Amino acid sequence: PRVVFSGIQPTGIPHLGNYAGALRQWVQLQDQESENTKFIYSIVDLHAITTPQKPDELKQWKRESLAALLAVGIDPRRSIVFYQSSVPAHSELMWILACTASVGYLSRMTQWKQKLNIASECQLEEGSVGSRLKLGLFSYPVLQAADVLVHRASHVPVGHDQQQHLEFARECATNFNHAYGAHLVHPKTIIREYIGSNDDFGIRTPINYLFVAPVHRIMSLSDPTSKMSKSHKLARSRILITDTYEEIRGKILAALTDSAPGISYEPAKRPGISNLLSILSIFDPDQRSPEQLAQVYSTTHPRSFKETVSDAVTAGLQGIRTRYMELIDDGRYLDQVVAEGSRKARQSAEETMSIVRSATGL
Ligand code: TYM
């Protein structure tokens, strides 16, 4: 049997990057023939607290993330949806994996090195980097490995920025299996991208039995050389999947682009316009690639191209926004969904944990 697992941090309402890079694939996988496949999607609140969070805000964001997952089409009758912290086995397996994980490997992880650089840049006094950075942030990938391995996931649909974390999850499985016997399953990463896209993450995983739409790496609207992110301080750098027409239009018209005439797909030379092409492609009814769309709009004025993109995004997100508004007010339904999800996720995790505990002699 296949097990599809993925997670999202509850650090705000998902944005277009989360949607195009992950959530849309989660729904597509779920909606296909799935008799032999279990779908497990987690709202990873334990990962969220690796950076400081306000407790009330986190609580609210968890709910909003849950409503957003359901609004994009995750169906609790077919998929298990739960808060990570409601299944303690994730933390338990994390500890066990930490005991065979290499510190050297963790310290070479890109996301950690970025955090390290940021911290050193802000360094005021000698030695303060070490106290600023927290152990939880360093060991973040071990918890992510536990998420995947505790449910014996065979496939993990994610955006490009999570590939290295999943390499590490496979490494954790190898280390554990080496020490205690072949008990943990090696998960495959599901990522597909457009052939010919100018992308520095060149890994393609052929998945020939389940269709997933191409995964787009969506960049920030205010700085199109860095990824669209929930934590960026400028709200107009990202489009939330619940944004109104006015919000979407305002953000896209204000998006940073160059002053060259016409439209072309050249991510290195014209990152802003290329990002808008990727965004348009997400919602294109004919599923054309950004390159194909660039040909269609090649002579369009950038301003009117932005209006086209803004209309396409609004139309594409309208149904999601309407469902979200209904769901967010239905507290009883949301509670019921996560209660049922936690119960099933605990059961799924417990099957692995009883094997793991017995293999390790705990
Ligand atoms: P998170 O919450 O940052 O993002 C959730 C998903 O959205 C994708 N994504 C993007 N895709 C394209 N363009 C972007 N700008 C963009 N920004 C985010 C991410 O690749 C991700 O798939 N560590 C994970 C959560 C996690 C997880 C797991 C994922 C915890 N445990 C186990 C898979 C399996 C994270 O922080 O995702």
What would you say about this model in short?
With 362 residues, the chain is mostly helical. The protein has helices spanning 16-31, 45-48, 55-72, 89-98, 103-107, 110-121, 128-132, 135-138, 140-150, 163-180, 245-253, 271-282, 290-296, 302-328, 331-360, and strands at residues 2-8, 37-43, 79-83, 155-157, 188-190. The strands form two sheets. It has a three-stranded parallel sheet with strand order 1-2-3. Strands 4-5 form a two-stranded parallel ribbon.
Fold and architecture overview:
With 362 residues, the protein is mainly alpha-helical. The chain is built from 15 helices and five strands. The strands form two sheets. It has a three-stranded parallel sheet with strand order 1-2-3. Strand 1, helix 1 (16-31) and strand 2 form a beta-alpha-beta unit. Helix 12 (271-282) crosses helix 13. Tryptophanyl-5'AMP binds next to strand 1, helix 1 and helix 9. The site of tryptophanyl-5'AMP (TYM) has 25 residues, from strand 1, helix 1 and helix 9.
What's the layout of helices and strands?
Elements: E1 2-8, H1 16-31, E2 37-43, H2 45-48, H3 55-72, E3 79-83, H4 89-98, H5 103-107, H6 110-121, H7 128-132, H8 135-138, H9 140-150, E4 155-157, H10 163-180, E5 188-190, H11 245-253, H12 271-282, H13 290-296, H14 302-328, H15 331-360
Parallel strand pairs: 1-2, 2-3, 4-5
Helix pairs in contact: 3-14, 4-9, 9-10, 11-14, 12-13, 12-14
Task: Give the tags.
single chain, 362 residues, mainly alpha, two-stranded parallel sheet, 7% strand, globular, binds tryptophanyl-5'AMP
